[in-house]
Sequence to fold (944 residues):
Amino acid sequence: MAEMTMTAPRARRAEIAEGKKPPIIRPKASSDDFIMRGCLVLVGVFFMLTVVLPLYALLKKSVEDANGGFVGLANFVAYFQDPALTQSLENTVSMAVISTIVTLALAFGYAYALTRSCMPARGLFKAIALIPLLAPSLLPGLALVYLFGNQGVLKSLLFGESIYGPIGIIIGEVFFAFPHAVMILVTALSTADQRLYEAADALRAKPMKTFFSVTLPGCRYGLISAGFVIFTLVFTDFGVPKVIGGEYNVLATDVYKQVIGQFNFHMGAVVGLMLMLPAVVSFSADRLVQRKQVALLTARAVPLTPKPRSLVDGFSLLLCLMVSVFLLAILGMAAFGSLIKFWPYNLTLTLSKYDFGALGTGGWGDYFNSLRMATLVAVIGTTIVFVNAYMVEKSNGFRWGRNLIHFCAMIPLAVPGVVLGLAYIFFFNAPNNPLNFIYTTMTILVVNTITHYYTVCHLTAMTALKQVDAEFEAVSASLKVPFYKTFWRVTVPVCMPAIVDIGIYYFVNAMTTVSAVIFLYSSETKLMSIAALNTEDAGNTAQACAMGMTIVATSAVLRGIQALVAKRLQRRSQAWRMR
Amino acid sequence: MAEASARKLYLHIDSVSKSFGAFQALKSISLDIYEGEFVCFLGPSGCGKTTLLRAIAGLDIQTSGRIEQGGRDISALPPSKRDFGIVFQSYALFPNLTVAENIGYGLVNTGKRRGEVQARVAELLSMVGLDGQERKYPMQLSGGQQQRVALARAIALWPGLLLLDEPLSALDARVRLHLRTELKHLQRQLGITTIMVTHDQEEALAIADRIVVMNHGVIEQIGTPEEIYRSPTTPFVASFVGQMNFFKAAASGAGELRIGNIDIVVPHASEYGKGEFHLCLRPEDVQVRGIRPDQGNVLEARIEGLEFLGSFCRAQLSALQDDAVRFQADFSINAMRDLDLAPGRSLSVALPQDRLRLFTSDQHR
Fold:
């Protein structure tokens, strides 16, 4: 083990020098080892340029004055003395807390219904819950304008309150965060042991008692984890408050205003760091919680099969129907809005809003920019993620380097999009940076998006690779076959389902993302999601809806293709795959 | 051992140690293995047997010490520069490749022509008794068949050394018995030097030319299966291999030995001096028939319990003279019938002098 010889304590080395201990064997690295370490170094450079140095540039900016002189914490002091800015900190926290509570309650009920009830159409309800993932986060905001705006169909329901502000933000964020919470809670509730419920029955526990002493404790880590995820998502979200927030300022929109509106980069950096704080806290807390999580489902456990309970099943169906109607109404309203001639005076259906060229905007060029970026992100990102995860998981020796790279791969999860975008401006736009030339190109958008969504992809790849037999590399070494041949012929085919998942995740997110790229696009590389935001800003809500729906349709088509590909892959590989 | 040393030395392991942080997995292991030998590393889990195998393969290179294979120093070489074939407990078969592709995996890479590869794969398939299965995928085979494919793949490139890491332990008991006979046969036929790691002492006794018993990172004993079983040199080997009665015995120093208040005669007891000892005797060596009046170490015992084990019965006995002295004895079904043995009965048993083994009590079990 190379790392052992390198880190041998000094006392031990002295002993060796005196001849007390036999000489330590320094393993000779094979050509495989050299290639693997070379790849790891390349990945290290990649993270240095895409994560570490940009974040350092952001940090540096926050302690400098306008002339680049070091001012310590003066910017932070100024921040806390500005009542307008501290007000939005308060706003952000209260929005995040309320949205988290509402989403968590709804998502828990929904996930419980999906996993523990016998209500009909559970598959359909599960699919409906995931719809918001296909949409850019500004879409619920647009739909809410149509539903509750000044000329909204349901405006009377608000009793004179305005949708522009906290109410709109909360409804939009619930829509936006709901699928993330449902996915985590479905996983947590699926891992239950039937025997615990049988034991509770045998002890004559009442259903309520069983719920509080078996069900809830069993998924408490899932609840905590979902809570952190929702809080962080809402706290850092840019799309919803941008569209529906009105005069109600939050941190993410503050960053945008400080930087794009007032060119106050230093205050932007300070607000960006404020934005990162809860993400870092919840990220570390989540890591801590996951470490405590013990395997609830041992090999001997009997998976739970829900039994019909008319009352529970009835309530489950009712809840799922209500939530589904809400989710579909938001999407449906956006679709409807995009097809109406002139809301609310002329309700004739028309496709004219999809003629993006007509208003002198980028037209369909923006859409093709989005497609091009999403494709590049999916292809390049998936390759980098999978090769990197393979090197971290399967190479020999060099342990500290592998741990460091694994840590770097985890950082992007704690960095909100707005912050990452800002950090990229500071780093890549610096005149003395030799990489300055990629600023305002498609390259920077691709690199930024790959980095922004890196962590989830990395974890998916690691999970898949951990399930591959650990001895494949040893066997191929003994057969004198270089590792990259086995990687290509065995590891990649075996992990293909996970690789496809990563690619689709990258593609869909690249299509819908706004927050990071909004700082980085140029007129040649404008994306459809950004075009939608700008169009809305200019007051053309209908066309913004049309742009949002185009993105939803593209993501949905891709998901459909994925399902077909998955089915074909499964048919082709069913000869050798266990499932 | 005399026979073995006349043969050609193949693998020379000299003072090999391996540390994982503060934990010492191997403590200065030295061992010679001869050409064509079948050697088993036997020991409980965590004894270091797999660590030693992985050091020989170069998968986890030792911290210090030297390994020579066929006269070549391979101590620091990566696995791809060594000469071995390996079968893992999981078999590590490539699930997306057919049986033929798995077996020919290394051959294709050597740049051999397709016809040559096919011929070698066919030869290997018939060698392991899997003719006609070449187009199947590993998942379509039984555990025993998968094991054979892994074995065929491991010997495909004519390696000088075959390493087997618990290759049989994932199989059903019946398949395991069958396969170990076949494995031994194949090894004889090919004459390939083989090291197998196992925790199953029965398997090691049945299959090995020599057994290396390991515990806590050191070698306890090296010997033929018969030597290991008949003449264990440490209490650990005595207790780990086969069944063994342990008696606490005290020596006065004048050649007398007492278990409880029973006097026992042991050859050369006076050489051991005064002190505490462990006296060992296998249950099947407790004599119950044909006891001569002058043979010594005869005592009256009561049958406390009987366990029926098919071809024999294992009896729990206690000495009448001192009922704190308890031990086990195996009685054949014939003896059970002839002597009409039943719980509660008493009988005379002898502890034959030539079967008793004595260990000083500071030796670890």
Q: What stands out?
A: The first strand of chain A starts at residue 340 and ends at 342. Confidence is low (pLDDT under 50) at residues 1-18 of chain A. The two ends of chain A are 37 Å apart (CA to CA).
